[in-house]
Design goal:
Number of helices: 14
Helix content: 40-55%
Strand content: 5-15%
Oligomer: single chain
Distance between the termini: 38 Å
CATH topology: TIM Barrel
CATH superfamily: Divalent-metal-dependent TIM barrel enzymes
Order of helices and strands: HEHHEHEHEHHEHEHHEEHEHHEH
Number of domains: 1
Largest sheet: 8 strands, parallel, barrel
CATH architecture: Alpha-Beta Barrel
CATH class: Alpha Beta
Number of strands: 10
Length: 289
């Protein structure tokens, strides 16, 4: 190889390396979302005004956890007025029964693409085969949602990662639930608190996690399977995204494998909600992975 050919080859290789490096560092979250539970007290006081402030920070998507005594029609109008979308909403476990058709109809009015159950009560979890029954309930809910053009999903806390009869409830749900009917909204803080690695779940169950909750923690506190936990109420260890111990760049680099489409910031009990969600937004808006 002569000098000219060698230099040409090196130049091409250098350019390719730079392009690959640029591409690898140019992934970002296009639409950052907010779980409105974070600003629930403000939403109760000023529903429309709070949505306006959320949008002004830069959020493009919101996830509801109740409609704060507003009709589905009014919720849709308020969201549209602020240039937001509401791709998902949290619904309680009890609503998956006889009233579920009404929940689905409301979701269609607001424009939800996902309905997410975020919590299974302890008395249900403690029943014999409680988790198996929950999976059966989720499959039925998923079938009903599918007929309406909506995807059903489940959102975890910490207790799904504590063994029950030698098996993790989260693993049982992933095994027993039909992957086409039931997706997962993975709370990346709670799985960390539960002592598990989300990347391992992305590897084992690719494409099962279209939604994630993005919240951070200063340290991993001790937890048990029962009760709400002090950590679950006072949130002394929870913090704004990017100021805790979770490696967001490492996790989000696997977003395609996980199937993540929606990223919802959440802080369960921020002292100053608007300041909190702005700090989290600013971090995520600048994050490249």
């Amino acid at each position: 190889m002569d000098r000219r050919t060698f230099l040409g080859t090196m130049t091409a290789a250098t350019l390719l390396t730079r392009r690959l490096a640029f591409a690898a560092d140019d992934h970002k979250i296009d639409k950052i979302g907010l779980q409105l539970y974070t600003v629930r007290d403000l939403m109760k006081q000023d529903f429309d005004g709070t949505l306006a402030k959320v949008a002004a920070i830069g959020y493009k998507e919101v996830e509801f956890a109740g409609y704060f005594d507003h009709s589905p029609k009014d919720v849709r109008a308020a969201v549209d007025r602020r240039g937001l979308t509401a791709p998902s909403a949290h619904i309680d476990y009890k609503s998956l029964g006889e009233k579920f058709p009404e929940v689905i109809e409301a979701a269609k009015v607001v424009g939800h693409e996902y309905l997410v159950n975020p919590w299974i009560e302890e008395e249900i979890r403690k029943q014999p085969d409680g988790w198996k029954h929950a999976a059966e309930t989720f499959n039925r809910a998923g079938e009903a949602c599918k007929k309406a053009g909506i995807q059903f999903a489940y959102h975890n806390h910490w207790f799904e990662f504590l063994p029950v009869n030698g098996k993790l409830p989260y693993d049982l749900l992933l095994t027993e639930c039909d992957p086409n009917l039931v997706k997962m909204e993975l709370d990346l803080c709670w799985i960390t608190v539960g002592g598990q690695d989300p990347l391992k779940y992305f590897d084992r169950y690719p494409g099962r996690f279209p939604l994630v909750h993005v919240k951070d923690v200063k340290r991993v506190p001790p937890v048990t399977a029962g009760g709400a936990q002090d950590f679950g109420s006072s949130m002394k260890d929870m913090t704004e995204v990017g100021s805790g111990i979770i490696d967001w760049k490492k996790i989000f680099a696997q977003s395609d494998k996980a199937g993540i489409k929606h990223y919802f910031v959440e802080h369960d009990n921020p002292k100053k909600p608007l300041e909190s969600i702005k700090k989290s937004y600013d971090y995520l808006a600048s994050l490249r992975f």
